[in-house]
Amino acid sequence: MSRILVVGSVALDNVETPFGKADNVLGGSAVYFSVAAGYFASPSVVAAVGADFPDEHIKLLQKHKVDTAGLVSIPEGKTFRWSGAYGFDLNTAETRKTELNVLGDFRPVIPSEYAEIEYLFLANIDPDLQLDVLRQTKRPRIVACDTMNYWIETKKDSLTEVLGAVDLVFMNEAEAREYTGEYNLVRAARKILSLGPRYVAVKRGEYGALLFGEGSIFSAPAYPLEDVFDPTGAGDTFAGGFMGYLAHAGSFEAGTLRKAVAFGSVMASFTVEDFSLRRLTRLTHPEIQERMQSYRKMLELEPNHV
Amino acid sequence: MSRILVVGSVALDNVETPFGKADNVLGGSAVYFSVAAGYFASPSVVAAVGADFPDEHIKLLQKHKVDTAGLVSIPEGKTFRWSGAYGFDLNTAETRKTELNVLGDFRPVIPSEYAEIEYLFLANIDPDLQLDVLRQTKRPRIVACDTMNYWIETKKDSLTEVLGAVDLVFMNEAEAREYTGEYNLVRAARKILSLGPRYVAVKRGEYGALLFGEGSIFSAPAYPLEDVFDPTGAGDTFAGGFMGYLAHAGSFEAGTLRKAVAFGSVMASFTVEDFSLRRLTRLTHPEIQERMQSYRKMLELEPNHV
User: Fold this and answer.
1) Alpha-carbon span B233 to B271, nearest angstrom
2) Quick one: residue A150, left, alpha or beta (phi over 0 = left, psi -120 to 50 = alpha)?
3) N or C: which end of chain A has fewer CB within 10 A?
4) Contact A186 B224 (CB under 8 A)
5) Looking at residue B89, what is its pLDDT?
6) What is the pLDDT of residues B182-191, one digit of tens each?
7) DSSP of B205-249, one letter per residue?
């Protein structure tokens, strides 16, 4: 199985939505990403946790084929904690509290045995650290990155350097607009592409994603669900399914990219069905295939001909 | 050519967007609808204007194959006027002023020669008038309707009766949510379908539309444009392209419906490229086909296989 390396956060979350609340639950970009990617490839995580991080979470990751050898536990530290809430409009989280804890001093060290992994996802961390990770690897075959408004506002130059060094960029639409200063998404995407990456996946919450490449656009709707419980982690799950499928397919052709977006969307649709990793960790391959089948049908312009 | 009847508004609009402004320009649901539908079928309009309505607008409609015999001019009246503005988020208009004028007393009279037209679009007018129009026709083969928040709030029972009497409902997502009391769109669409219509097209502005049928969903993205100038009329243009294609195809099969949504989306993408009807009235069939081609590509999950 192809290997994927993800560098990002492992968190303990408190989440409240109109449909319930969950306290002290497993979260973090590297967690959602790796569990989703694990359905397609072999993910390894580089991240830090504190002494308070429950062993059961590590066991859960390992059970889902996530290699946790790069998960550093800081004995005197506490795990990164995020508290957030959503209203009925589940597209935007209201952050109530962020406790960086061990994430504040996190300086990822890539174990030498990971340096040759061909697929790398730089989840949303300080762009200077993302660059540092790149320097510690032997230029993986495919590098993707994510970011957030905070880095756009505080470390734009470093972020620009990251964007110029990766193959694939994940951003949500507000970030793409803020980073480029272009409200229009087509223009925003073109500006980002002009910096170097071959593709930009613009995430739009419940509206899905647009994949922009040189002269091409693929529209990937979100899978419509009757019950959306908690959108936390949907974006990282999307990236995990996306990169996992890419690694599995072993190609970077246009058709592969489109299927990767579709699998990313399908995986994200499971994450939002329950709090934390609950749905994602009790998922079966037949369920993924079945939903992919109905996702595919939703896109067919000529259903009788396919 | 198949005939389509539209009952709705003809307006003179003042529109301001971040990209410019246009005063006293042609607008109204029946206008956008019929000009768009005219590229596929033969539209007839039933609407009212005042003595101030410029003759050049009527000539423009006629030049675009719109039958204006049902366009009643009230000598002592003034044309319906709408003034609105958009910010960079072009999804929502801020209405600055509405002068109903002749629309306030409008009671559509369907000329007997229109009573057998097979395709009918009840644009956004008082649902009691929509019901009245239905009583004046010999139950067309396909009836579609649109509505707005005002009628949901003031005439919900009549609107429910309309929804139960039509084949196809056009609503934007906020309206679908407000009417059903369901924030979740899948649930909202199911509730509307349970009242009788075979399909609900939920419009989502720049995010496109979702077509819900019994057990099926088709996701139709908006065509991504580098320059969106003025979204006024996009929804009615969408309905016009949609119904025009349906009438042209002469079928109500699932595949036809999907292509109709796609043509509706393509037509709407032209409308927003300029103020008022400017882009829509200088459109050519090759331009429509070309954009449909690239729209189709944007939906292809397996571009190498199609």
Assistant:
1) 7
2) alpha
3) N
4) yes
5) 82
6) 999 999 999 9
7) GGG-EEEEETTEEEEEPPPP-S-----TTHHHHHHHHHHHHHHHH
- Tokens 């951003």 sit on residue: A171
* Helix, strand, coil distribution of chain B in percent, nearest 5: 40, 25, 35
At residue A193, φ and ψ (nearest 5 deg) are: -60, -35
Query: Which residues does chain B have within 8 Å of residue A298's beta carbon, measured at their own beta carbons?
Result: 217-219
Q: From the CA of B23, how many Å to the nearest CA of chain A?
A: 24
How far apart (Å, rounded) are the C-alpha atoms in residues A171 and A160? 13
Q: What is the pLDDT along chain A (306 residues), one digit of tens a residue?
A: 899 999 999 999 999 999 999 999 999 999 999 999 999 999 999 999 999 999 999 999 999 999 999 999 999 999 999 999 998 888 888 999 999 999 999 999 999 999 999 999 999 999 999 999 999 999 999 999 999 999 999 999 999 999 999 999 999 999 999 999 999 999 999 999 999 999 999 999 999 999 999 999 999 999 999 999 999 999 999 999 999 999 999 999 999 999 999 999 999 999 999 999 999 999 999 999 999 999 999 999 987 554
Tens-digit pLDDT profile for residues A228-257 = 999 999 999 999 999 999 999 999 999 999
Are the beta carbons of A235 and A222 closer than 8 angstroms?
Answer: no
Residue A219, C-beta contacts closer than 8 angstroms, at least 6 positions apart: A208, A210, B208, B219, B221, B224, B298, B299
Which helix (H) or strand (E) element contains residue A219?
A: strand A216-220
Extract the tokens encoding A296.
């595919």
Mean model confidence pLDDT for chain B: 96
ipTM over 0.95: no
Q: Residue range B88-101: average pLDDT? A: 90
At a CB cut-off of 8 Å and minimum separation 6, what does B83 contact? B13, B14, B15, B95, B96, B97, B98
- The nearest CA of chain B is from the CA of A24 a distance in Å of 27
Q: Residue A194 CB: number of other CB atoms within 10 A?
A: 11
A214–chain B Cβ distance below 8 A for any pair: no
The token pair at A165 is: 């060094």
**A185 touches B: beta carbon within 8 Å:** yes
Note whether B302 contacts A: Cβ–Cβ < 8 A. yes
Question: Strand A80-85 relative to strand A11-17: parallel, antiparallel, unpaired?
Answer: parallel
Specify whether the CB–CB gap between A208 and A265 falls below 8 A.
yes
Match 């006629």 to its residue by tokens. B62
B153's tokens: 């709030």
> B278: alpha, beta or left, given left = phi > 0 and alpha = psi -120 to 50?
alpha
Give the C-alpha separation, B124 to B7, whole Å: 9
How far is Cα of residue A239 from the mean position of the Cα atoms in its chain?
4
Q: Which of A98, A87, A91 is nearest to A124 (CA)?
A: A98
Q: What are phi and psi of A232, to 5 degrees?
A: -55, 130
Chain B, residues 28-47, CB within 8 A of chain A, namely none
Q: CA-CA distance, B210 to B11, in Å (whole number)?
A: 28
Q: Do B258 and A303 touch (CB under 8 A)?
A: yes
> What's the mean pLDDT in B43-61?
98
